[in-house]
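Risk register update: the risk of archive-format incompatibility is retired. Evidence:
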Amino acid sequence: MGSTKKILIIGAALTVIGLAYLTLRKDVADDESTPDDAKSVSDVPLKSQDSDKGDQNQASVDAAQAITTEAAKPAQVPSQVLTKDLKIGRSKIVTPGTTVSFHIMAKLEDGKIVFDSAKENRPWTGTVGAGAILPGIDRGIRGMMTGGKRALWISPDLAYGDNGITGQIPPNAKIYAEIDLLAVY
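Archived output:
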């Protein structure tokens, strides 16, 4: 395979990955915007830069299109938690098996706050990795340190899934949460 073809395929793949990332970020964070053309990777035409090679080059373009279009399908995006440290803590680090105490504020995509333990002055305490914490929060707090604050964007399957919580969290809701880590034991 010639270097022109490699550059074309790599360039197309990187463009599609970037567009897929922007699309995912738009899905999980209301406050971040993405270009309208990032909504559908399959709408991005791939064109050959070397028209002399004809069919052989078109086959490479078609292969790249098939790979990148397939990779960008939302149904193939794995369960995930996106995190952003708002404040770096100090001292003990959260790892599986540690017991933690934290305040949590969680809200839906529309901005509706569904709970805020700090307002009730009732921190949550539990053991990481023991199934006692919502899976998305369990994953999202790992690596935090005492005194840290982290924002989490949690996919529905790692939050409340198909069921939601009647009257409070709708089915298949994405959750945004802010965690204030009070202690690691």
